Amino acid sequence: xxxxxxxxxxxxxxxxxxxxxxxxxxxxxxxxxxxxxxxxxxxxxxxxxxxxxxxxxxxxxxxxxxxxxxxxxxxxxxxxxxxxxxxxxxxxxxxxxxxxxxxxxxxxxxxxxxxxxxxxxxxxxxxxxxxxxxxxxxxxxxxxxxxxxxxxxxxxxxxxxxxxxxxxxxxxxxxxxxxxxxxxxxxxxxxxxxxxxxxxxxxxxxxxxxxxxxxxxxxxxxxxxxxxxxxxxxxxxxxxxxxxxxxxxxxxxxxxxxxxxxxxxxxxxxxxxxxxxxxxxxxxxxxxxxxxxxxxxxxxxxxxxxxxxxxxxxxxxxxxxxxxxxxxxxxxxxxxxxxxxxxxxxxxxxxxxxxxxxxxxxxxxxxxxxxxxxxxxxxxxxxxxxxxxxxxxxxxxxxxxxxxxxxxxxxxxxxxxxxxxxxxxxxxxxxxxxxxxxxxxxxxxxxxxxxxxxxxxxxxxxxxxxxxxxxxxxxxxxxxxxxxxxxxxxxxxxxxxxxxxxxxxx
Length: 506
Ligand SMILES: CC(=O)N[C@H]1[C@@H](OP(=O)(O)O)O[C@H](CO)[C@@H](O)[C@@H]1O
Description:
Layout: H1 4-13, H2 28-39, H3 43-62, E1 71-73, E2 79-81, H4 87-102, E3 106-111, H5 138-157, E4 165-169, H6 174-183, E5 194-198, E6 201-203, E7 205-206, E8 213-215, E9 218-219, E10 221-223, H7 229-235, H8 238-244, E11 249-254, H9 265-273, E12 278-284, E13 294-298, E14 301-305, H10 312-316, E15 328-337, H11 338-348, E16 355-359, E17 363-364, E18 370-371, E19 378-382, E20 395-399, H12 402-405, H13 420-437, E21 441-443, E22 466-468, H14 480-483, E23 487-489, E24 492-494, H15 496-504
Parallel strand pairs: 2-20, 3-4, 3-11, 4-5, 12-20, 21-23, 22-24
Antiparallel strand pairs: 1-13, 6-10, 7-19, 8-9, 11-15, 12-15, 13-14, 16-19, 17-18
C-alpha cells in the first residue's frame, strides 16, 4: 500500500494536491481506500490526462464541424449487403462463417463496461429483462445465441466447437456481472470459455484541470470509453489468450442490442471472404438525427463520425435520389482479425482520439458537502472502439436489415425510442414474422384465428405474441418442420420443451 507521503508526492507532481484536502477527517478505512485509488494513478499520466482534458474541452466548443467538410460517404461498391445479395451468396458467406467457427477460430467480445445512465438502472445493462414472456435478460439471450451457433457449426461439420465469449466490464459492472453469471450457472456455457476482464477507469476533470472528488475520499472516475478495449486487451493479456486458443477472428458488439446476432456466420464469412482485417455492420439510417454514428471516409480513411459529433447540416445532406448522403449507420458490431487487434494494441493505441464529453459530475465542495451540479462541470474523456478503422489495411462494411438486427436498449420507458418496450416489440415482431413464414397459424385465448399481419407498425405489439428461444432457432432457421400448419395459441413460447412436443405431434 502506498504511504501518505508517497501519495502526496505523486499528487504534487501532477498538480492535484487537493485530492488529500480532507485527509485529516478520514477514518482508517476511508483513507486506505483513497490511497488505493491514488496508487493506480501514475503521476505523469495523470498530469497529461488533466492537461489534455482541459485542452480538448476548449477545442470541443470551437472545433465543431471541422471534420464534416472532409467527410465522404462509403462508396457503395465497398459495402456488402444482405438486402442486395441473393440467397446463394448469403449462403456462401454463412457457410464460410460456420466453417471458421467449426474450426474454433471465432470468438465474440462483448463491450459491457457502461453504466447504463440513460436507462437509469443501478446494475449492468446486460442483466436487464425487457419483459419478454420468458423473462430472459439480454445476457441470457446472448449466451443462448452462442450455444446455438456452436450447435449449428457442430451439426454441419460433425465437430464440438467452442465460441469463447470475452466480456469487457468496468469497475461498475465486473462484480455484478460475475455474480449474475455464476448464479445463472453461466447459462449452460463452460465457465472457462467466458472470460471477463476490466477496462480502465479514468478521473473526471474540472474545467480548472483539477480532478473531481465525488466523496471526501473518492475520486470521480469513469470508464475510458468502449475504445478502452485496446488497452484492456493488453492489460489483461487477452490477445495472448486468443493466440493460445487459436482464435483468428473476433466479433465485437455492444451489450444493448436485443437483436444482435452473436458470431453471425454470414458477417464473419463475408469479412473472411473479402480478406478484411476490420469490418463493421451498418444499416440505413432511419432519419437524419438518428443517434447512430455514420461510417464514412475522411481524407480517404475509414472512420465513424459519432452522432454527437456530426453537424446537423451534414447529417441532413441528401444524394441525387433524395437518399441520405451519410446513411451508413453504425450498429456497433465489428469484425477484427487477431493480427489487426495485436497491431492496434501494440502500435496505435496511444494515437486513438480522445473524445470529450462535458457532463454534470456530482462533487464535494471545499466544505465537504456533496453537490449535485445543475450545469455541466466536468470533463470526461473517452476513446471509441471504432477509431481503429483508420489503421485497417482492408476495411469492409456490411449492410444488414434493421428489423432483423438492430433494436438497442438505451433509454428508460417513457422516452420516444430505444426503450425496453421498443426492444421487446422488435424481438417479438421478429419471432412473429418467423413463425408466420414457417407456416404457423395463431389463435387467440378463445381459440379464434388471429388474422396474419405481414407489415407491422413499430409502436404496437404484433397481433400475436410469439417468443422463440435462441436454443430452438436463432436466425429463424429450422422452424418450418415445427410450425407448419400448426395452430399456435398466443402468447406462444417456443422453448426446447415445446419444440419436443411439436416434433411429437408431427
Ligand atoms: C462509441 C460508440 O461505439 N458509439 C456507438 C454506440 O453508441 P452509444 O450511444 O455509445 O451506445 O452504439 C450506437 C448503436 O447503438 C452506435 O451508432 C454508436 O456509434
